[in-house]
Specification:
The protein has 27 helices and 15 strands. The protein is an alpha/beta fold and 629 residues long.
């Protein structure tokens, strides 16, 4: 019998099927708040407005904790576990905010039906003190025993195990529970709230402070980074019994039969359920993790404003899916605009995430610039300075290979990375543009037996290599370019007896009889119309060409599926599918895995295209089409 059949009741919330639209449940609150504030509605304490505002603040608090926990450059020294989060965990924790909706609905029901919970004042000092003592006593006590009860066989196997599927926690893990558990936990919070009501101390601010403090501590406990300093316990020893720490709670997820408390370890100490390794783990983490240099670094940049929201520490679920310009992202546009300003001022690369492949450790460092900035002449010097500082930092710390992504290896910017190698000839870190594998992916993706191709962007680094490779295989290459000098220079690189396979063309109509187009340059819709019906557009242009023809097919940018044993990937690389990276990223990894000692900068060595391709396949990389088959 399946697990779903064993626990059919009270596992999913009533709004579970609404997924991202579940907050429509609170639309009546919005209507009531608007009516009360703008149409003189009868809502003395403005309850609906406060419920909406406190929910927004709780969501904002959860986002800030998530952003903090994923900023590797900040948390790396005191991180508890490394490399444990997966795409599956992110999906599983999609509904981690369900408790906020449920608590608003339950609190509103109490507000309507209990006279003592209506017409609340904004502030009541007595109530704030009262709710603290009620929480420390009855609430913590009941939660401790309820939590232990949830670990009995039936309840754990059918309900509570869902929370424990996340062994390596993130702040979102704090809210992951079945609906039955959410109701029980809401009742636990209700002990403190109702107790304060009956003592006459209820207030609007009490609800804000209690819910926000509760969320703050739950998110902290699951943030996978020890933030409670050792001096706090040395100065105030009793905190050991009254304040949970992230390392303390992490042990409950690795050894579930210990450390059951909510926020106060006192109850674990009183009942003998303290994990024996709690103090040792805390001391070890607060002493600081010795961060070792990664073996490999990939150095991309943000493509555009909206895609910047896909950076792993910005929007968790957006980052876990291939980028697409969704309508709701436009409402968040102020975030990347502000980020653009801050990153320009910051002027340093930042670490996005860390992952593991075979015996190497990889990291992605991001240049704090957007794609459009690479085409502003005044910005080029600053961008090169940022890339150079990243290379020197990698060299200083012992990184073996640094791979330049997207426009960071632009020919006009730095000659495909050659500028840095020439300026610093003694670099120990290998600088790689990864374009050799990119060229291989495009070439291996061409139909078998192709005899003719039409190319634009043909005199670029990639275009040159692709053209030279094809003519060696007796494929006719129509090279669209306005520079006969650059065309002639490429032709001269080919053996004399193969040069007749090159054809210089100057307009798109020359490709009207060729069904294999390779685009390395942005191509307008009116130019694409010259392609015959059934043409497939292969491309290596950034950003990708828009799909203007319904009777043609369009390839994606060259990419490869990572080997299945990679760990620590929980963010998609712009438009790539999960566990898929751009070919230049994979090319750098292959360079590192093979231990090659040369720099891969400047022009592509055509003789190495097949060699790099075979090395990639040997290490478990697959072209995207093969990986999806």
């Amino acid at each position: 019998m399946s697990m779903a059949a064993k626990r059919p009741y009270l596992t999913a919330s009533p709004w579970h099927t609404l997924r991202g639209y579940k907050y429509v449940v609170l639309v009546p609150f919005l209507i009531k708040a608007i009516h009360a504030n703008y149409f003189a509605g009868n809502d003395v304490d403005n309850w609906c407005w406060h419920m909406l505002l406190v929910t927004f603040l709780r969501l904002l608090l959860a986002q800030l904790w998530m952003t903090f926990s994923r900023m590797h450059g900040i948390v790396k020294k005191y991180q508890i576990h490394e490399g444990g989060v997966t795409f599956e965990q992110v999906d599983r924790e999609f509904h981690s905010d369900d408790h906020m909706i449920l608590e608003v609905l339950l609190a509103t029901a109490v507000h309507v039906w209990m006279p003592g919970f209506r017409f609340l004042p904004l502030w009541n000092t007595k109530g704030l003190v009262t709710i603290f003592f009620i929480h420390a006593g009855p609430t913590e006590f009941v939660y401790y025993w309820l939590h232990r009860f949830l670990h009995t066989d039936f309840l754990f196997n059918n309900y509570h195990h869902f929370h424990h599927l996340s062994v390596y926690t993130e702040p979102a893990t704090a809210g992951v529970s079945t609906f039955l558990e959410l109701v029980l936990y809401a009742g636990i919070k209700g002990i403190a709230l109702l107790g304060t009501i009956f003592t006459g101390g209820a207030s609007i601010s009490m609800i804000y402070i209690y819910w926000m403090t509760f969320d703050f501590l739950k998110n902290m406990a699951h943030c996978n980074c020890e933030i409670v300093p050792a001096w706090a316990f040395r100065t105030l020893p009793f905190l050991k019994y009254t304040m949970i720490t992230p390392s303390y709670h992490s042990l409950h997820h690795t050894e579930p039969a210990t450390n059951f408390c909510l926020f106060m370890p006192l109850y674990d100490h009183l009942n003998g359920t303290v994990n024996k390794n709690s103090d040792e783990l805390y001391d070890r983490i607060t002493a600081g993790r010795q961060e070792t240099a990664p073996d490999f670094v990939f150095l991309p940049h943000c493509v555009d404003m909206l895609s910047a929201l896909q950076v792993t520490f910005v929007l968790r679920h957006t980052a876990a899916h291939p980028y697409s310009s969704q309508w709701y992202l436009w409402f968040l546009l102020p975030i990347p605009i502000l980020s653009c300003i801050c990153m320009t001022i910051w002027g340093k690369v930042f670490v996005a995430y860390k992952y593991y492949l075979n015996d190497i450790v990889g990291q992605t460092w991001v240049v704090p610039r957007f794609g459009f900035q690479y085409f502003i002449p005044q910005e080029m010097k600053n961008i090169n300075s940022l890339i150079e500082s990243a290379i020197l930092e990698a060299d200083r710390t012992g990184v073996k290979v640094i791979s330049l992504g997207a426009l960071n290896k632009n020919e006009a910017l730095n000659g495909g990375g050659a500028l840095f190698v020439q300026k610093h000839p003694d670099l120990r870190v290998r600088v790689v543009h990864g374009n050799t594998l990119t060229a291989a992916c495009i070439l291996k993706g061409l139909p078998e037996g192709v005899t003719e191709v039409f190319m634009n962007g043909a005199t670029s680094k990639l275009g040159r290599a692709i053209a030279l490779y094809l003519v060696r295989r007796r494929v006719n290459v129509m090279m669209l370019t306005s520079s006969k000098e650059r065309f002639d220079a490429i032709v001269r690189e080919a053996p004399t007896h193969l040069r007749h396979y090159f054809t210089l063309v100057t307009d798109y109509r020359s490709g009207k009889n060729c069904k294999t187009w390779i685009m390395g340059k942005w191509t307008r819709s009116r130019d694409q119309r010259w392609a015959p019906k059934g043409t497939h557009f292969h491309q290596f242009v950034v950003p990708p060409v828009a799909s203007a023809r319904k009777d043609c097919t369009y390839g994606k940018l060259a990419a490869m599926r990572m080997p299945p044993h990679v760990k620590g990937l929980y963010s998609c690389e712009v438009t790539c599918e999960r566990n898929v990276v751009h070919a230049c990223h994979a090319g750098g990894l292959v360079h590192c895995l093979e231990g090659w000692a040369h720099h891969e900068v400047g022009g592509i060595d055509v003789d190495r295209i097949d060699l790099v391709w075979e090395a990639a396949l040997k290490h478990g990389f697959l072209p995207v089409s093969a990986g999806e088959a």
